[in-house]
Amino acid sequence: MVETTVELIIHHYIAEHVDETFDYDTEIFEEGLVNSLFAIQLMTFLEKEFGIKITMDDLDMDNYKSIHAIGEFVRRRQERDER
Amino acid sequence: MRGYLTLSQQATYHAFIEFVSTYVEPQANRWDIEQRIPSDVIRQCAEKGYLGATMPQEYGGQGFDYLTYGALTEAIGRGSISLSGLFNVHTMVMESILKWGSQEQKADWLPLLAAGKKIGALAMTEPSAGSDLMMMQTSYHQQGDRFILNGQKKWITFGAAADVFLVFGKLAGTEPIACLVPKESPGLSITPIRDMLGFKAAHLATLDFDQVEIPVTHMIGRPGFAISYVAPYALEFGRVSIAFASLGLLRACLETCGPYVMERKTFETALIDHGMISHMITDMGVDLEAATLLGLEAVKAKDNHSPDATEKIMMAKYFTSRAGTRHATNAVQIMGALGCNEHHAVARYYRDAKTMEIVEGSNQIHQRLLGKEFAKRAKRRMQRSEVAKEAQETR
């Protein structure tokens, strides 16, 4: 249930910025759905929406490649911040 | 701008204006003619705490919000666009370290930079790589716990006055990285660039790196992310600086031309009563107001940590720098021969305004990104409204 909510929110935000249809496994940067400028917007969105702070330790493209990956990353980051 | 600030912000803004009126504005033409800002002016900015404007207090900064930082750069830009370049590049380096640096890097560098004991500059542009950073030729190669840096950076604002550079390059020819390189590093040569059109006193320089060795611990962020994350994050602060410094330049045009057109007469009529002049001043005032609102919207979004800030900042930079060029051109036209003399501030506004259209992402790059985004958004909006209409009709 939590997983669905996080992914849904991310999907909704990205869908506001792209024309193409995509699913939770689509590689949004690799397939050119969004440009490099969007990376900073997406980072800011994730920080604000989910109350996390993205730092140098989080610079790993695997964290941002798809909606599933971003959802996983957000949950890991939230858990780390709670500890 | 003052009218949009709270009472406490107005008091802070007033202090910025006092500083600029006393230490900046009276000297700015001379700095341009001599093509350098004296080091004691940089020291005065440091003593006021202005160089650490946006840094948290734990690192010795002022902890200003971005609206207050905007007000500071507006005031500085009113006095000297060249000096605003210092705030621009120095802030971009500090913000990059604050966001992407390790705890050690923050502890080592931020207190020195925030206090102005060290000056930072961003080394991104190369002779063949400006807007298209992927064309960078500057290279890093790792040897044990050191990077070997080779290449050339050009048009580096405050490059001839900075103590440390955030240098962008490619690791092993592929992965973009950015490292802090102290100016005293053996193999680094710094050559001042003179005779620019604008930014004449902004200590522009060429940096040549010949087998420069730096510890790998000087890397900011991680390999592969310098162009996609570190650079755009830094440039967002650069664009805030350019937008507000251009706003200061716009105000300077109006505050110079306004009194002049009220007093100067031709054909027994004050200039302001000639329709052509009145038109120019009207557009100047309206664009100043529009640019102020765009700028304030942008920094409020940044202060709210809104994802929209990226676009709003680009819009503010684009609009205000273009308006600066248009109205500085008109200011020269209004002032006539006076405005064509390098001892008059208007000539400096004219030269500097053009530079603001080029730095921190040329306005053509802004058009490319913003134009496409506006068109795509409009298309999506129309498609959604058509879908909604069809759904309603089938009910």
Automatic annotation (TrEMBL), chain A:
InterPro entries in the cross-refs: ACP-like_sf, PP-bd_ACP
Residues of the Carrier domain: 1-78
Coiled coil location: none
Pfam family, one: PP-binding
Protein name: Phosphopantetheine attachment site
Annotated source species: Marininema halotolerans
Source organism phylogeny: Bacteria, Bacillati, Bacillota, Bacilli, Bacillales
Automatic annotation (TrEMBL), chain B:
InterPro entries per record: Acyl-CoA_Oxase/DH_mid-dom, Acyl-CoA_Oxase/DH_mid-dom_sf, AcylCo_DH-like_C, AcylCo_DH/oxidase_C, AcylCoA_DH/ox_N, AcylCoA_DH/ox_N_sf, AcylCoA_DH/oxidase_NM_dom_sf
UniProt keyword annotations, A-Z: FAD, Flavoprotein, Oxidoreductase
Lineage: Bacteria, Bacillati, Bacillota, Bacilli, Bacillales
Domain Acyl-CoA dehydrogenase/oxidase N-terminal: 9-117
Top-rank taxon: Bacteria
A Pfam family hit: Acyl-CoA_dh_M
Ranges in a coiled coil: none
Domain Acyl-CoA oxidase/dehydrogenase middle: 121-212
Family: Belongs to the acyl-CoA dehydrogenase family.
Domain Acyl-CoA dehydrogenase/oxidase C-terminal: 230-372
Keyword Flavoprotein in record: yes
Cofactor section: FAD
GO terms assigned for molecular function: acyl-CoA dehydrogenase activity; flavin adenine dinucleotide binding
SUPFAM superfamilies: Acyl-CoA dehydrogenase C-terminal domain-like, Acyl-CoA dehydrogenase NM domain-like
The keyword Magnesium appears for this protein: no
The name this protein goes by in its record: Acyl-CoA dehydrogenase
Membrane-traversing stretches: none
